[in-house]
Automatic annotation (TrEMBL):
Keyword Glycosyltransferase: no
UniProt domain Phosphoacetylglucosamine mutase AMG1: residue ranges: 2-28
GO function terms (MF aspect): phosphoacetylglucosamine mutase activity
Provenance organism: Desmophyllum pertusum
Name under which the protein is recorded: Phosphoglucomutase-3
Alphabetized UniProt keyword annotations: Isomerase
């Protein structure tokens, strides 16, 4: 089924057909389908840096490839939280880095976002007050 949908652009027609197939095969109602998903708490922050082009990403902006060591630091931080993930991406219009973090609790998501923001500030040339 992975070859039937395009997660990058989210083709609605193929997504709908895949969902219909899953519902049919599993004998699920829409309520059954809805019950399989739990939205995790998340936090989005931004960090002002000297030059947003120092942040480079890959994997649909989910992994930082530059500056060196940033992704490893993010991965270390994420490993300290339950059901967590975090990624950073440069703004397209201003010298800021957008930080996204999610975890199993609001407090954990807030804490992870702050910690990742501090790493971005330290490793990517943050300016102004440190988060």
């Amino acid at each position: 089924m992975v070859d039937l949908i395009n997660q990058t652009v989210g083709d609605a027609m193929s997504d709908m057909l895949v969902v219909e197939t899953i519902l049919y095969e599993r004998h699920w109602s829409l309520d059954d389908w809805r019950a399989t998903y739990t939205d995790l708490p998340n936090r989005q922050l931004k960090v002002t840096i000297k030059d947003r082009t120092v942040i480079q990403t890959t994997d649909d902006e989910r992994k930082a490839t530059a500056p060196e060591g940033l992704q490893e630091e993010i991965d270390k931080l994420v490993s300290g939280y339950k059901s967590a993930r975090s990624f950073v991406r440069p703004s397209g219009t201003e010298d800021v880095v957008r930080v996204y973090a999610e975890a199993d609790t609001r407090e954990a998501a807030d804490s992870l976002a702050l910690a990742v923001s501090q790493k971005v500030y330290d490793l990517a040339g943050g300016i102004g007050d440190r988060p």
